[in-house]
Specification:
By secondary structure, the protein is of the alpha+beta class. Helix content is about 50%, strand content about 20%. The protein contains five helices and eight strands; from the N terminus they run ββααββββββααα. The longest helix is centred in the N-terminal third of the chain and has 29 residues, at about 15-45.
Length: about 180
């Protein structure tokens, strides 16, 4: 039986655990390689000093902080995104806004009635249908209660995309593609 990227704990929480672990390891490798290259170049040129070593370590640490991925998890009626420094949490059953934010990378911006705000990569939701299911379940409840005033269209688009990619994965796994 193959390993899945989604991990469940005893409380029904779903997360992008294994994929997240690989991305953290990759961020660490990138920062380590940069640090090693900078130190080798400094050592080779004979200009290495404790101050420069501290500067290169700070630069590698900054790169690690930038590349550090968000760990997204979802439970009964909430979705959380944990970064290196802080965690953002939104109640999916109290959503008031769901927007697609374009930029360098597309993001799904979720806001709830309690002031919670979470940005999630839509590709992550496509790769982890259980996370999407938790979000969609709460958003449907929020829309039925009349809270979700902005974002029903974005949720429909996202739902079609997840369903399309899930169907493709099923066809790929069954072999007729």
């Amino acid at each position: 039986m193959g390993r899945r990227d989604e991990v469940r704990d005893g409380f029904g929480e779903v997360t992008n655990g294994l994929e997240w672990t690989r991305e953290v390891r990759s961020a660490g490798h990138c920062a380590g390689v940069l640090l090693a290259l900078l130190l080798v170049v400094d050592w080779g040129s004979g200009r290495i000093t404790p101050g420069r070593v501290a500067l290169w370590c700070a630069l590698a640490g900054l790169l690690f902080g930038v590349l550090y991925p968000a760990r997204v998890s979802a439970g009964g009626e909430w979705l959380a995104s944990r970064r290196l420094v802080r965690e953002q949490l939104v109640r999916t059953d109290l959503l008031v806004s769901v927007r697609c934010v374009d930029g360098v990378s597309q993001r799904l911006l979720l806001r709830d009635a309690l002031g919670g705000r979470v940005e999630v990569d839509p590709d992550l939701l496509v790769r982890h249908p259980q996370l999407w299911f938790r979000l969609d379940e709460g958003a449907r409840k929020s829309a039925a209660d009349g809270l979700l005033l902005c974002g029903v269209t974005a949720m429909r688009r996202m739902s079609r995309r997840v369903e399309r990619e899930t169907a493709r994965a099923v066809f790929r796994a069954s072999g007729p593609e």
